Amino acid sequence: xxxxxxxxxxxxxxxxFGGLTALDDVSLRVAPGKVVGVIGPNGAGKTTLFxxxxxxxxxxxxTLTLDGRDWRPRPHHLSRLGIARTLQGxxxxxxxxxxxxxxxxxxxxxxxxEALAALDRCGVAKYAATYPGALPYAIRxxxxxxxxxxxxxxxxxxxxxxxxxDTDEIRWLGDLIKEIxxxxxxxxxxxxxxxxxxxEILVLDFGKPIALGTPAExxxxxxxxxxxxxxxx
Length: 233
Ligand SMILES: Nc1ncnc2c1ncn2[C@@H]1O[C@H](COP(=O)(O)OP(=O)(O)OP(=O)(O)O)[C@@H](O)[C@H]1O
Hints:
Layout: E1 8-17, E2 20-30, E3 35-39, H1 46-54, E4 61-66, E5 69-71, H2 78-81, E6 83-85, H3 98-103, H4 111-121, H5 137-150, E7 155-159, H6 167-180, E8 183-187, H7 191-197, E9 200-205, E10 208-213, H8 215-219, H9 222-229
Parallel strand pairs: 3-8, 3-9, 6-7, 7-8
Antiparallel strand pairs: 1-2, 1-4, 4-5, 9-10
Helix pairs in contact: 4-5
């Protein structure tokens, strides 16, 4: 029987910043189409893990593979490889319209149509001709998501997409993530969202992987409870 290849995998990744170990022997295999969450207390290494995958931070030790082949990520190759990332904030160019902002990540003659379709999918097409600066934060978060979706990525990396959103917006976001059908890596503090959308969750604590499993397994894991509450479960 053929063994499915992991789309993206980290193998024993360690990152040190001087004397600080931000990631300590982290391995993760992400299968195509799965939604994989990365959680952990502040400073656990979640953003560093994203930065390793994006090529912003080179691992001190360990390797990555893409479709089973050795892979050395470079930020300027991500788009060509079909990997898109949203930012924690809303990071849009103030001097460009919403549509122009979303078109930044899309190439080809159909760029405008793809950008409009992504805005529509995120429920914000009516703001296409608006400048983003004056728009409410939740709308700008949706535009940021549309920007990432417009390039039709095969791997979508979401960095705290629920930050600053209210309950209704988070519910909308959860439905969207479940419908996307693409591989998703999700760094998020909002536990209800993580538990409701993820197939698998990696838990980091001070850079160490302390648990990896389904939401049901993670929610009953004593080491996870201890890391979050600071006391034995
Ligand atoms: N470029 C850097 N230089 C030095 N230390 C860094 C650098 N980037 C991150 N760190 C440190 O590495 C550790 C992990 O940081 P990281 O931002 O990855 O954590 P995080 O889990 O994303 O935290 P948060 O939930 O607060 O965003 C922290 O102690 C942080 O201060």
